[in-house]
Amino acid sequence: MLPGNGGPLIRVTRLSKHYSNGQGVIPVLRGVNLEVRPGEMVAVMGPSGSGKSTLLFILGLLMPASSGNYQFMGQDMLALSRAAQAEFRRRQVGFVFQNCDLFENSTVYENLEFPLVYAKVERQDRPERIAAALQRVDLAHRIHHQANHLSGGEKQRVAIARALVNEPLVILADEPTGHLDRTHGHMVMDHFSQIVAAGDTALIVVTHDPQVAARCSRIFSLEDGILNEN
Ligand SMILES: Nc1ncnc2c1ncn2[C@@H]1O[C@H](COP(=O)(O)OP(=O)(O)OP(=O)(O)O)[C@@H](O)[C@H]1O
Ligand SMILES: [Mg+2]
Predict the structure, then answer these.
(1) Is residue 186 part of a domain?
(2) Bridge partners, residue 194, by sequence
(3) Nearest-CA neighbor of 176 among 4, 53, 15, 91?
(4) How far is residue 25's CA from residue 27's CA, in Å, rounded to a whole number?
(5) Pair 59, 77 in one domain
(6) 192 domain residue, yes or no
(7) Are 41 and 201 in contact (CB under 8 A)?
(8) What is the span of the domain harbouring residue 1?
(9) Distance of CA 52 to the CA centre of its chain
(10) Which residues keep their CB under 5 angstroms from ion ligand 2?
(11) Residue of minimum CA distance from atom 4 in ligand 1
């Protein structure tokens, strides 16, 4: 199901988030507005600690917002049951975490198989999809390596392949090129561009790298809890 009449995939309005700890309340997002259409590549930049990862976590339903609205394909995401939230994460979202978060004692293959198992992809269909996803990040030769034997950049590329293996509708990528050399950084961005150009997938990429941002159709800055388009 895709939004009819060219409507946005994501529509966020007045989204706020504060963290509470022993010392009190830490406001992070103070009324973020964002619309992303299918097939768009959007960059989010901003200083360290400005709330970029927090925003991606909320969009991926990995963390609740404090207030505001979030619609995905016209559906109110903040009102979903826990089961429906899990279903959304399984089927629609490809998340590239800032710190990769691989299962370190598992192989590359097993790391990519996990989201497919979770999404109930048949066993016999998994090897081909895993091999294709690894091919795209130039890591086919590491398929049976254990994750903790990979270099930092290789881990990052596995994390990217893992986010894409499910063919999600939105890719939420948190500094996906932070550990990569220029060649592999470009390769990853080429790959994202192809996926986005080929279908209805949208990409929201958090980055500190102006070259990565320049590959996106729109660039936003998150500062003082507000998101502004550059
Ligand atoms: N669980 C938490 N409890 C309390 N404060 C938190 C929590 N998680 C994040 N924060 C604070 O919220 C702010 C935003 O954090 P976030 O990780 O979203 O920033 P960021 O923009 O992704 O930064 P970076 O560029 O360094 O990755 C930071 O000041 C951080 O210390
Ligand atoms: Mg971050």
Answers:
(1) no
(2) none
(3) 53
(4) 6
(5) yes
(6) no
(7) no
(8) 1-92+168-180+197-230
(9) 12
(10) 53, 98
(11) 19
